[in-house]
Design brief:
Porin, 16-stranded antiparallel beta barrel, about 550 residues, mainly beta
């Protein structure tokens, strides 16, 4: 019985298949040709019939966990990051530069600054959203800014203008410095801001970049508004993950600062009219300019403190740009604005005037602040490929804050006789030059004669000098400031595991503190500031 039923089912299936095949064969030739013609037309127009999303596809699109797709409400989102882990080893000296107990009675120590340590130098996370072809927004934060990291190439930070021991480094609440601080919206943290030992020119700033860029609409130009780096110099603007050495030079530090404002950027001699990295570029911008140029980073994420705005202009040209002769870039930049006094807003500043008579209730004297940079960089081509050199010069003029500069004459305020009462206009300048050779870019790397372990290696050297040390002028301590040069020679080795995305850097800094052009009553100690540093970096 079961055998008979099985044979019947098989026969029915065979009959159904035969009928189906027979019907398929019976499709009219005209109809078949018409269907092929329609398919050809759809293919020519690039059209396709969208497939309906199944329940399985919908579930996969909304899943969570590893390998899931990153989605945004609109546009395209790009996520980037930079992690730098440092180890810094300082020489074991403990006497500070201004230490002179036998002469002026000033005590200064660098023991708290020159401590060998691991540190997270940078931990940047960036988000760039391309809303459409013309509008993008970028936000970048750096949680490592919550802590004062070691400052290289000199252990004392950007500037050394006072000693790091009490009573000179302390400011009592309610004094002139505290009132001045409130004016600038910093709060009662003047001592922390100005303590040269911290290496911090302002409060830690978690928010780095926060700007909107309009591009691909106005030929040869794009416009940026928000918080970003004004166009000051070359090294200061360079990506933190693409530095030739572990840290910027003292000159480069001055341009590594962000401000709030708007800038229009032009680019010519590129791939097309929307190429933003052409061989001739310029930019013009207007920024808040809060704070002082002598304290880079102080105006970051901060509203303006007077009615004036700072203006910025930058231009670069690349007259030679090919693989045969090499790649040469020349550039200049300028930034300036009125700092200090705001008319009609007298908030009670301590001003000794030139007579030395203290007065309250007067505005901080205004000053036209300015900064100028000029630079050149060259990367060799042809048989010298792999070799490169860079150089940059900077000039800065601005006024410092009250009680910021040490006074060896002892003629300071009643609260502290060893600090200059009033921040006087002063200028600083400096220059650096650097050379290097990257073996992977040389002509010998491609002929098979170079060992594989040598290709990821780059050798670099840099010499720099900058007026980062300042004191009250010996002859006129109430009116002027005197600046001195610190000189640093750096030798470095970079090992590229995967370009700048994964690399290890090693630097040794030979530091020469200023010892010349001193008055008989002004003695500088010779501190031990040499240091060795390692940087372990991952970028994505």
């Amino acid at each position: 019985m079961q055998s008979w039923m099985s044979k019947t089912v098989v026969a029915a299936l065979l009959l159904t298949g035969f009928v189906t095949v027979s019907r398929a064969v019976e499709v009219p030739t005209e109809e078949w040709e018409r269907m092929k013609s329609q398919i050809s037309e759809l293919q020519a127009r690039g059209s396709s019939v969208p497939a309906e999303a199944s329940a399985v596809d919908t579930a996969l699109d909304s899943k969570y966990g590893p390998n899931s797709a990153v989605t945004t409400k609109t546009g395209k989102l790009t996520i980037g990051g930079l992690l730098q882990v440092w180890y810094v080893n300082y020489d074991k000296g403990s006497r500070g530069l201004f230490d002179d107990p036998a002469g002026s009675g000033i005590r200064d120590s660098s023991a708290a600054d020159n401590i060998n340590s691991f540190a997270i130098r940078r931990a940047q996370i960036s988000f760039t959203a391309d809303i459409n072809e013309q509008i993008s927004g970028t936000v970048m934060i750096d949680p490592a800014r919550e802590f004062s990291n070691p400052s290289l190439p000199v252990g004392w930070g950007n500037y050394k203008t006072r000693n790091s021991l009490s009573p000179e480094s302390q400011v009592v609440a309610g004094t002139a410095a505290d009132v001045f601080d409130a004016r600038n919206g910093i709060g009662a943290r003047f001592a922390a801001l100005q303590d040269a030992g911290t290496g911090v020119a302002g409060a830690p700033r978690l928010l780095q970049d926060a700007y909107i860029n309009w591009h691909n609409c106005l030929p040869y130009h794009d416009i940026t508004i928000g918080q970003f780096k004004p166009g000051n110099g070359e090294e200061g603007l360079r990506n933190d993950g693409e530095l030739d050495f572990i840290e910027r030079s003292m000159v480069g530090f001055q341009g590594d600062t962000r401000d709030l404002g708007l800038s229009i950027h032009g680019s010519y001699w590129g791939k097309d009219c929307y190429d933003r990295d052409g061989r001739f570029q310029y930019s013009f911008g207007v920024f808040n300019g809060a704070g002082s140029y002598l304290h880079p980073g102080e105006g970051q994420n901060r509203t303006d403190n007077n009615q004036s705005k700072d203006f910025n202009a930058r231009m670069l040209v690349r007259p030679v740009w090919n693989d045969c002769i090499g790649r040469l870039e020349l550039g200049v930049s300028y930034m300036g604005g009125h700092h200090g006094q705001t008319s009609g807003q007298s908030l009670g500043y301590y001003n000794p005037l030139d007579s030395g008579t203290p007065q309250w209730g007067v505005d901080r004297p205004g000053v036209w602040a300015s900064r100028f940079n000029a630079w050149t960089s060259y990367r060799a081509g042809s048989i010298f490929s792999g070799a490169w050199l860079r150089s940059e010069y900077t000039f800065i003029k601005d006024a410092d804050y009250p009680l910021a500069n040490i006074d060896y004459t002892g003629g300071g305020s009643s609260t502290n006789a060893n600090l200059q009462d009033w921040g006087r206009p002063t200028s600083r300048q400096g220059i650096y030059g650097a050379v290097g050779f990257r073996f992977a870019d040389s002509c010998w790397a491609s002929d098979g004669g170079m060992p594989c372990w040598l290709k990821p290696v780059e050798l670099a050297a840099r010499y720099e000098m900058f007026q980062d040390v300042a004191t009250a002028n010996q002859a006129e301590p109430l009116q002027h400031v005197q600046a001195f040069y610190t000189k640093v020679a750096t030798v470095g080795l970079n090992y590229y595991i995967k370009g700048h995305n994964a690399k290890v850097q090693a630097n040794y800094n030979f530091v020469q503190a200023p010892m010349d052009h001193q008055a008989a009553t002004q003695h500088f100690n010779k501190p031990d500031l040499n240091n060795f540093a390692l940087n372990f970096q991952v970028a994505f």
